[in-house]
Amino acid sequence: MVVSLIAFMLFHVSTGFYLPGVAPHEYQLGEPIKLKVNKLDSVFTQLPYDYYSLPFCQPVEGIKQDTENLGEVMSGDKIESSPFKLGMNNPIECQALCKKSYTKNDLSHFQQKIEEKYRANFIVDNLPAAQKFKTIISDGKKEKEDFVYEKGFPLGNVAHQSGKKVVLLNNHVDLIILVHSDSTRYQGARIVGFEVQPRSIDHQLKGDWNEKEPEANSLDCSGATQLRIANPTPPEKLDVIWSYSLAFEDSEVQWASRWDAYLKMQDPQIHWFSILNSFMIVIFLSAMVAMILMRALHKDLRRYNADPEELEAQIEEHGWKLVHGDVFRTPENPSLFATVIGSGVQVIAMSFLTIIFAALGFLSPASRGSLMTALLVLYVVLGTLAGYYSARIYKMFAETDWQKQTLQTALLFPGVNFVVFFILNLFIWHEGSTGAVPFATMFLLLLLWFGISVPSVYCGAYFGYKKEPPELPCPTNELARMIPPQPWYMQKYFAMLVGGVLPFGAVFIEVFFIMSSVWLHHYYYMFGFLLLVFIILILTSAEITIVMTYFQLCAEDWQWWWRSVFTPGSSALYLFLYSVLYFYTKLEIVPFVSSLLYFGYMFLISLAFFVVAGTVGFVSTFTFVRKIYGAIKIA
């Protein structure tokens, strides 16, 4: 009941309320409305390009670029001015924008981008342009019409006529601006929606072209003849007239809810199904842990803590007590182990705080780049946690080379991410995409890393080494105990792979929505659901690791340290394998660089997933093992 109430509250926080970061603007009659252009993007290539990388009409006063934050630069956004002239509640019917003479090379560039399914993106009053499509939805009893938005609009389309491939260019756009007025609260009108419908029109000019005043040219946009730029190859030269129409529609949508139409791309019923499915997994695992603690473990404790006279009458001891002299033996590669746990704590804290801020509305879609910026800033600031917990674990192992350990914590995980990111960025830069991070921004990232993150790690490590390490309840024997042969189902690799199934299964559906948001350019703003799923992931990872570790110790296998990390961490392998399946079933990526980009970023995401789940597994298991061995009498 409590979980359902929290989920209900978080759902409304994440869908019905957000803090956009800007105040609503009331437009007066005839007031100019700025239409800005953003990057060209495609789900086919995943490589964004500058809007003016194609020879579109340009503003007479020159192109002006908006100032971008770090997140926008990392996302490849490039917002610039446009030649469109719009005024509030001043509709326009078929107005010329400009006339361009294109060479065969220019038309080939358009043809390539159209065949690669590129879409243009306009922005009005911080709202992205979207195509509106009708759809039929059913509630089980009756069907009704509804609509969905798709971000941007296609540059053109490819048709097949008389057995030939024909490429059509969308040289006309019908702009529809939805406005909301409320004379009792404010004067003027607020923009609450921005729709665009592209068309391909082979304009037939009436009279001579007026170059100085393009809007004075008389055009007819009702013609059914479409503009072909390749039939199937482009001509040597072609004159294209670009045009647009503008209409205003009254809307009942409130300004605070104007993003709801964009967020309808995701079905909340499926999210609820995901939550309930994951919640059932947690209940199942919780029941297993409770059974172990209440029955098997209590029985073991009673037997192990019996009086010496009773012990003599009992059968020879067996089970997890026998390995008390080895269970806290330092694992292999203790420095790497401490680094993984420290990095995991840092990533968990970063993820949790980011989701919290997003669920509260501070990282809404209206604030472009804010989510990426928050991730980067929180990560470098939270380096203190990585250094602190890494130092405490390293000191617990009685290791002394703290300088090397701290440096490794500060450099290993972010270093792997930076190297992969830098290599991918070189490929993107070679393609001329705006998705390539400029070297100035790359230098800024290095400055954040070495100027803030590394000192933060050293600061945390300083306090971590000053504090006493966690007290271990059992001393370690000088000689290591032999591990008896294990049954097939407790073999190391098999047990670890099995342990990763449930954590991944608990978050599987949410992973699908997140990947659709990233790779199919859908908006994702179900952060209330994501917060619940993140908590479920933590609970599932903790409980499955405790269960698997208990069975392992009962089989007298005391090497549990790394297995407590890899058991839930193996869910990252399933995540990467699912990304491969998603690539071949949901995406249409063909270019080599785009494929490399996809698998490179999915590798980094899987790596972060590994350290998160692995750290949760270790922390929960370490707490469990300390409790059970602290509760027995050691002779």
Write structural notes for this entry:
By secondary structure, the protein is of the alpha+beta class. The chain folds into two domains: 24-258, no CATH class; 268-328 and 472-630, no CATH class. 48% of the residues lie in helices and 15% in strands. The chain contains 17 helices and 16 strands. It has helices at 2-16, 70-75, 104-115, 260-263, 268-304, 308-313, 334-359, 370-381, 383-396, 402-430, 439-466, 492-499, 501-519, 527-554, 561-569, 571-585, 592-630; strands at 32-33, 35-37, 86-87, 92-103, 119-120, 122-124, 127-128, 130-138, 143-151, 153-154, 156-161, 164-169, 172-180, 190-199, 228-230, 237-250. The strands form six sheets. The protein has a four-stranded mixed beta sheet. Strands 2-6-7 form a three-stranded antiparallel beta sheet, with no helix packed on it. Helix 15 crosses helix 17 (592-630). The longest helix has 39 residues, at 592-630. The chain is elongated, with a radius of gyration of 30 Å. The chain starts with a helix and ends in a 5-residue tail after the last helix. Residues 1-21 have low confidence and may be disordered.
**Strand order across the biggest sheet?**
4-16-13-14
Helix count from the secondary structure assignment: 17
Helix content: 40-55%
Overall number of structural domains:
2
Oligomeric state of shown chains: single chain
Q: Report the major sheet.
A: 4 strands, mixed
Backbone shape: elongated
